[in-house]
Please model this.
Amino acid sequence: MGGGPAGLFAAYEIVENAKDVSVVLIDKGYMPRQRHCPLAKIGKCVCVPCHITHGIGGAGLFSSGIINLRPDIGGDLQEILNSWDSANLLIDYIDRVFLKFGASQERVFEPRGPTFEEYQRSLARVGAQLVPIRQRHIGTDGSTRVIENFVSYLTEAGVRFITGTAVEHVERNNKTHMLRTRRGHY
Model:
């Protein structure tokens, strides 16, 4: 799974809800502050693995740090959960976790008001739909800080991070899984 949002949240849920469990998070990329793209300085891509697309925080770490807070944008969470209300509760929970690790409470945007409504109506006249999306803006620098806080919390809770290591094979033995890497088996 790696150390993107899914891996970080999986580790978080385990340390918050399970006792006497060892959690190891393996990513072929590196920690947030170790990820720098040299393309602008040297004019070519030389990172293996790519520091933009791999590493703790995932490929979105260096994006604009915008989190969509609506279940039907970026996927169909309400369909997976068979409930719009359950999907919104899960999104609110995820948002609270990001707030816990330093996302700004003030930077939530949701288009509304007469100007937005007029724009919606004008688009509807030509068959287009403008969907209002509530979004939290963390920002590129904020994303790195939030993910570093997330990692610190997980580390203090006992999660072991192994970076610069690709999982090459996964074996399932009864109730356990063995992850094979070039640096060893976990």
Observations:
- The longest strand covers residues 167-173.
